[in-house]
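Thanks for the sequence, V.! I ran HTH-type transcriptional regulator DmlR right away. Repeating your input here for the record:
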Amino acid sequence: MKNFASLTQITIFSRIAELGSLSSAARELSLSPSAVSKSLSLLEERLGVLLIKRSTRSLVLTEHGRIILERANAILSDVENTLDVARQFVKPEGNLRISSSIAFGSKQASLFLSKYLDAYPKVNANLLLDDRLINLAEEDVDVVLRITSDTTWTYAARKLAPIRWIYCASPTYLASKPRIQSPEQIDQLECLVYPAMTKDGAWSFLKSGKPISIRPSPRLSSNSSIALREAAVAGQGIACLPTYLVSGDIINGQLSIVLPDYEPAIHHTLYAMYYRSKYSNPMVRSFIDHLVVEFGETPPWDKEIENFHNSAGIS
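Predicted structure:
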């Protein structure tokens, strides 16, 4: 039996190959780098071939490694499918620990969490609102809900929804200014600026794929979209804000979309990030599956705006 490779060794090899790093694989699998390195060496010894060429700068799959990786991934997929059948009989229960950005979590979390907890009465949720990027290897968190345009993280992640941003202001503020017909007019007005939605200090607009940039003079600059939303509602100027935060304001008339034919050139996506090893937990898996169904192709907050515009005859 000693000549057979274990499923653990195959899993570790697959994660090393996918992440391109022994240390990254170790973090995801909650193992030490030395344990991961030893597992890879034992697998190569038992198979009698070199799978990965190691250097101080990089890891490169050998030809044998590529062939074995293809078979290894097929084996792991079969195992996962088998476990899926068993998980159907296991009801999620326990304490689910979720991290979310402050704005998204405070505005949307109670809605989708309530539905999930109603569906799984044996699950309790602990929601941590924090704008810093949680290190899953160091903190006791199961799922991180993160809005980003980056895709270079080392965690497993599932795409949940596109995040749309709009330029908006209060109707009272807009009524006191000349009608805005082009982005170039905005830099003459009071602007409420969220730095993450600028590039080199400029706001960017897209219309029919053509970019336009302006450099606003901030009346107020803040790293809190919640603070900027409050300022916009109070009539302090024009802000670029996420629709998940202001959909209700658009519908009740507290805010109006500025230049609806234009959109910001910067785009973000909402992801659920997790350690791949935790995805086998029925509670983690069911929660992420719930979010995918709940948000769908168009998340609820964007559907609300679409329905409002359709009922009002706004194009």
